[in-house]
Amino acid sequence: MQRKPTRRTNQERTEVTRGDLLTAARKLFTERSYAETSTPDIVAEAGVTRGALYHHFADKQALFRAVVEQEALAVAEEIERATPLSLPVRKALLAGADAYLAAMAVPGRTRLLLLDGPAVLGRAEMDGIDLRHAGRTLREGLAAAMGEGVIAKSPIDALTGLLSAAFDRAALAVDAGASAADYRAALVALVEGLFTSKKR
């Protein structure tokens, strides 16, 4: 006896449509850029109607923001997987740096988060997204190191911002073809420098 196929609920259909739009938009934004991607391109790639797009997102920029947020979350999750709480803080900061570079090596991610993101959403909004995700993980690691007294106390927001900028610069350079090993070594030296400065 054949079972009737189960029908999806409205919420399931809604989630599938939203997911299809995000997947299509990510593909086109990374292949063409935000500026060169139109909403008709996105709905055609997703196989949905324009009405479906505007049901889920106010406009192309809102869809782009959702794609960027999703990518930033994925980076933070990679860092968190690589830095369990059981890891000593020094090893966690170094593992987090490696995880960041690996996560940013996903094709298109550097363009979304470090090039088009600031251009489309503005630096302040991108900083806010970063502080909810990868920047938050870095800040937490630095706060833990300061709390344990293994690195010198300093203004944590400024230190987080400067180190985050160094990580972003490394990701951009590697994406442009520079040696990942060289940039990883430089980031390790920066992080290790925080610990050696405490001994002076």
TrEMBL record:
<feature type="DNA-binding region" description="H-T-H motif">
    <location>
        <begin position="38"/>
        <end position="57"/>
    </location>
</feature>
<dbReference type="Pfam" id="PF00440">
    <property type="entry name" value="TetR_N"/>
</dbReference>
<dbReference type="GO" id="GO:0000976">
    <property type="term" value="F:transcription cis-regulatory region binding"/>
</dbReference>
<dbReference type="InterPro" id="IPR050109">
    <property type="entry name" value="HTH-type_TetR-like_transc_reg"/>
</dbReference>
<dbReference type="InterPro" id="IPR001647">
    <property type="entry name" value="HTH_TetR"/>
</dbReference>
<keyword id="KW-0805">Transcription regulation</keyword>
<dbReference type="Pfam" id="PF21351">
    <property type="entry name" value="TetR_C_41"/>
</dbReference>
<keyword id="KW-0804">Transcription</keyword>
<protein>
    <submittedName>
        <fullName>TetR/AcrR family transcriptional regulator</fullName>
    </submittedName>
</protein>
<dbReference type="InterPro" id="IPR023772">
    <property type="entry name" value="DNA-bd_HTH_TetR-type_CS"/>
</dbReference>
<dbReference type="InterPro" id="IPR009057">
    <property type="entry name" value="Homeodomain-like_sf"/>
</dbReference>
<feature type="domain" description="HTH tetR-type">
    <location>
        <begin position="15"/>
        <end position="75"/>
    </location>
</feature>
<dbReference type="InterPro" id="IPR049484">
    <property type="entry name" value="Rv0078-like_C"/>
</dbReference>
<keyword id="KW-0238">DNA-binding</keyword>
<dbReference type="GO" id="GO:0003700">
    <property type="term" value="F:DNA-binding transcription factor activity"/>
</dbReference>
